Amino acid sequence: MAADKYTVLISEEEIEKRVKQLGEQLSSEYAGKKILLICTLKGAVIFASDLARSIKAPCELGFVKAKSYAGEQTTGSVDISFEDLPDIKGRHIIIAEDIIDTGLTLKKLSEYFLAKEPASMKICALLDKPSRRKADITADYIGFKIEDHFVVGYGLDHNERFRNLPFIAKLEL
Ligand code: IMP
Ligand code: MG
Fold it and tell me: Ligand 2 centroid vs 100 CA: distance in angstroms?
């Protein structure tokens, strides 16, 4: 399998513009509140870093590790570790996710967080692949809707490669 050929799907400039818009939207919707922005590792790390810097409201960062992919195949089971998370109870949490594919990861994460009684919980996903959904999950904020492509870059990987590309690219598998 050649995993080196890719074509740019969303440019660096488009991402920057859209992430700024999302930040502005969150800044006005959460004015006067303190956000706990929870980044899902590793895929959302670049998105969450840029998003956090475009949010004007006070914003604390938290991290969870969620793993469901091996290569370009979803494994169907979601492995999540919740170490070092601040208290969720009574907090306004926003889960920053790189991409919603089957939705299984976010379903598991949102059930976990809702059980901790946050004051509010929203999902902000950079990318959405609605055609592959298995779990009943919709994001409150979405950067871009995409077709069923395997994409890399801006945090997303294929076997740990390509996360550092500044754009989103479609991998030719
Ligand atoms: P879900 O549980 O199927 O929604 O999978 C979500 C996770 O799988 C995302 O957070 C990504 O880390 C990973 N993933 C899904 N689609 C892609 C893709 O096209 N490229 C890279 N990673 C992906
Ligand atoms: Mg992810």
Answer: 8
